[in-house]
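hi!! sorry for the late reply, been swamped w classes. u asked for the two structures so here they r. pasted raw, havent cleaned anything up. first the sequence of the first protein and right below it the tokens
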Amino acid sequence: MQSNYRCFELTKFIVGRGSIEYLKQIKASRAAVIHGGRSLPESLKTRIIEILSESGTECRFIAKILNEPFFEDIYEVLDVMEEYKPDLLIAIGGGAVMDTAKGIHLFYEHPELALEDALKPYQLPALGATAKMVAIPTTSGTGSETTSAAVFTERKTNRKHLMLADELIPHYAILDADLTDSLPSKIVAHTGMDALTHAMEASVSVAASAMVTTMAISSALDIFENLEASADESSSGDLKKTAREACHVAASLAGVSITNSCAGLAHGFDQPGPWFGLPHGLVCGLLLPYTTAFTGVHPSYVKLAKRLGYKSSSDKELCQMLVDHIIAFNETVGIPRSFSEAGIDEGEYLMKINDFAALAVEAIATKLSPRVPTLDEARDLYKQVFYGENPIVSGPLIMEILL
């Protein structure tokens, strides 16, 4: 008999501007820092060293991640980890940094683990006996500081692979919005759309509990209400700082939501992203109105539409209003309407559609969506997204969310 309950996994959050100071409260002898080269100025490096030194913790910056995570990024650092033997691992940067740090943490503590075994869902050994991990996001999108997942790209094929287990959830997540204030607006928009997609997809996942649904819908609303001001180059002062902090928190809560359920169709269909070198958040935002319409009428979409202020006696009309709202919202924050508008070559895209569709229908995120497309439906959806055809809500009413 299938159980009707879910566990809820959560990192320890430290929240608020200036919260990076919490590092001094984590007792450790040696801290190894993995960071993003474009988002970590020398002044912040100096501050981290000073904070750690106050508690007597030695600090070494051991890896700079400048790209999407590749498996090679893990192995290149393991010798340094073994020589230094840190008991604290700090990941500071965007999602690529967090995911790479999770992989490094895993193989540092379990060097005997084969890569193929690391890719088996929910079968990883425990972490934390040798080192604790602290995640400090400098972008507001992936939620990787809270999630049980790490995504890596195979360099030769550009195919994505997933490490998935609760053991990968960092022990601490420090949400210091001060670290987001200097982000360019384009990055804010792209990462924000990734977070919005997490929230909306978690809210309809067949693995979602009532707690996940509540958190996911709340996160989506906060992003809808704040991302425009957060990404607006002309906004400044307290308005922008407030909006960025709201998006920073919402992105992490969206990450918690997918950790306790799953991402959905837009993530399952993000096959063109790595192939054509498009930012993940841009692709998620671009796909979101189409995958939302394909999913069809759902209680979470109805609730979200109502909370956005839409009114109708028809649930299908409310869901269509939500799809149209996403389209308009995308335009406001600079997300293209189609892959064609994003500059992808038509011939190359059409040649790859069969490959993209085959990978999409096999993705875990696709299989845990409320409506799972067939191979033919996946091909049709990819064509619709390339040409920017109007996404129309269809499909039967889903009467209940699995608990």
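now the second protein. again sequence first, tokens right under
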Amino acid sequence: MNCDILYLVIPCYNEQEVLPETARRLEAKLGGMIESGIVSPQSRVLFVDDGSRDATWELISRLHEKNPLFSGLKLSHNQGHQNALIAGLMQAKELCDMAVSLDADLQDDVEVIDRFVTEYYNGCDVIYGVRSSRAKDTVFKRTTAVGYYKFLKFMGVEIVENHADYRLMSRRALEALAQYDEVNLFLRGIVPLIGFKTTVVPYERNERFAGESKYPLKKMLAFAIDGITSFSVKPIRLITWIGVLIFGISGIALLWLLLLRLFGYTVAGWTTLMGSVWALGGIQLLSLGVIGEYIGKIYKETKHRPRFIVDQFLNRRE
């Protein structure tokens, strides 16, 4: 059997603390797969530097000089995780038969890459790495994560539960992904739209090896909003139904007040009046915010600015 070329694509942003250990483990893993004949000797580890402010690119450059197994892609500016990931995948697309995307923090279990490749050889174009358990998460994170996936599905977003961005994609799938040129990227929602044959590989997610998470609560909330507004118009429809509901309640309340007036009852109504004003004001502002989120996305899409600009690419094919 002819071995296919595998690229491991790893977005990096200020990862100088964890990068040496990540490189050591990936070198051992990919090197072992090459020696055993599972993948081609032309396979590579591609680190994507997303405009890091520390020594991340210097470390990637040194790794490349010492060992051709390591390649490096430097973006000219910080563009965010999803853009860095798509940059690496699109660069690898022309050089590989399959690509595995994973994070640099070693939370994704590299030992299951063999199973990804086995499923690829069995005819799957997309293999999702799915967490088998969330026992290591805090109660807050576990509860919010489960609730988020359920809410996405309720909103009509096709998504694989407990899957982040740890996946294998064949070259055919990468070429299909390249056709999605939207600026507002949410790859966890885009990839399932590609179709083709898919499967799932469960794995146990590890603790971060070193450094700090690049996804604090603020970024996670922004990412969650992107996931919803990029794939569903249900929030806008929900606003419409809220408006219909309030209109109905207002009609009933007006009828009730007229009846009270006819029968001679008088009500001060200060609390009811102020409560209604604040409630309606809050709903209006919330509605404007949701609509504004969609308008903002339309604004970005119409500008059609590049998602990333490549500064340097280091790659040796020996």
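hope this helps!! also noticed smth abt the second:
The chain is about 50% helix and 15% strand.
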